[in-house]
Amino acid sequence: MVKKRILSGMRPTGPLHLGNLHGALANWKKMQNEYECFFFIADWHALTSDYDATGPIRSYIIEIFKDWLSVGLSPEKCTLFIQSHVKEHAELFLLLSMITPLPWLERNPTYKEQIAELKNKDLSTFGFLGYPVLQAADIIMYKANGVPVGIDQAPHVELTREIARRFNYFYGNVFPIPQTILTETPKILGIDRRKMSKSYNNAIFLSEPPEQIKKKVAQMITDPHRARRTDRGNPDVCNVFSFHQIYSDSDTVKQIDRECRKAQIGCVQCKQQMARNLIKALEPIREKRSYYDAHPDVVRAIIEKGTRRARSVARQTMEEVRAAVKI
Ligand code: TRP
Ligand code: SF4
């Protein structure tokens, strides 16, 4: 049986954190056994908002690649590549831009939100408005059947479907219409209880050294009503407890639940225990990572191999596209 093909991407905005691990990465890792997978780093997409701060992009790309390999994405099972290394994406983006009506882009909820949210940034650019057109090119280039994404990206996949349908309508049936495969967003919050995000400065990174993890865990906000050691706590509203539920064994979780409610355990001790278990859980990732840190040539070879494979598919698609468009 032919495996269905899926594709997804990440923008290189920084090293990956626990939120990414329990969201996208865990999902991708599972999917690599069931689907033919294409995963790539969307570096051109990073430019749509960070066009004035391109300095760290290249090093972020390498860091993310190492994160991917360390958590167990396999270059044997998936095609791992970098968007800007496959120039065909730019050509397809151009052709799709000819048939994409502006109102489709202007009513994109992500577009409106970001413009409103990032007030200190001039996002009234052609590239930023065209973000979903580039994303559509990324997806249909590989004739992906499915696109695993979080809910925030769902409108972009919806637009991709509309753009692909419109292309097929004008030029003939070249592209399958991709499905959105919604990824469960993890319950994991940042150390300040907001959504874990690099831009909030509240994330714990996969590549974080153990000492640093201990420090961050020590800063975590616990049950806000538990001001004193003698106050009873409520684990249901405590972020440290959510972490215990992921990283500690079930007996420990039950014990903490009980002792917290009776003020028999203090938050300092509870956090230390959680940090130890978190550090232990990340140990295999850290170990693999130190191998890739010591062997940059291996990482480079994996990137090259993936890029070659992606390019050969993209080249083939573009031949079909040019024939269909008659250009
Ligand atoms: N826009 C996606 C994000 O910010 C990244 C991305 C670019 C993507 N192209 C894609 C995701 C194609 C899935 C498919 O997360
Ligand atoms: Fe949270 Fe643990 Fe403190 Fe209870 S004891 S409030 S679970 S950190």
Note down, in words, how this protein is organized.
- The protein has helices spanning 18-31, 43-50, 57-71, 88-99, 102-106, 109-117, 126-129, 131-141, 154-171, 210-219, 239-247, 250-261, 267-294, 296-325; strands spanning 5-10, 36-41, 78-82, 146-149, 179-182.
- The protein is mainly alpha-helical.
- It has a 3-stranded parallel β-sheet.
- Helix 3 crosses helix 13, helix 4 (88-99) packs across helix 8 and helix 11 crosses helix 13 (267-294).
- Tryptophan (TRP) binds next to strand 1, helix 8 and strand 4.
- Tryptophan is lined by residues 7-11, 42, 45, 135, 138-139, 147, 149, 153, 156.
Offer a few descriptive terms:
327 residues, mainly alpha, Rossmann fold, Tyrosyl-Transfer RNA Synthetase, 2 domains, three-stranded parallel beta sheet, two-stranded parallel ribbon, 5 strands, 57% helix, binds tryptophan, binds iron/sulfur cluster
In CATH, the topology of the largest domain is named: Rossmann fold
Q: How much beta, percentage-wise?
A: 5-15%
Oligomer: single chain
SSE order in H/E notation? EHEHHEHHHHHEHEHHHHH
- Helix content percent band: 55-70%
Structural class assignment: mainly alpha
* Total separate domains: 2
Q: What CATH architecture of the largest domain would you give?
A: 3-Layer(aba) Sandwich
| N→C terminal distance | 35 Å
What value does the average pLDDT take?
A: 96
Bound molecules: tryptophan, iron/sulfur cluster
Strands ordered across the widest β-sheet: 1-2-3
Major sheet details: 3 strands, parallel
CATH superfamily of the largest domain: HUPs
CATH class of the largest domain: Alpha Beta
Nearest-angstrom radius of gyration? 22 Å
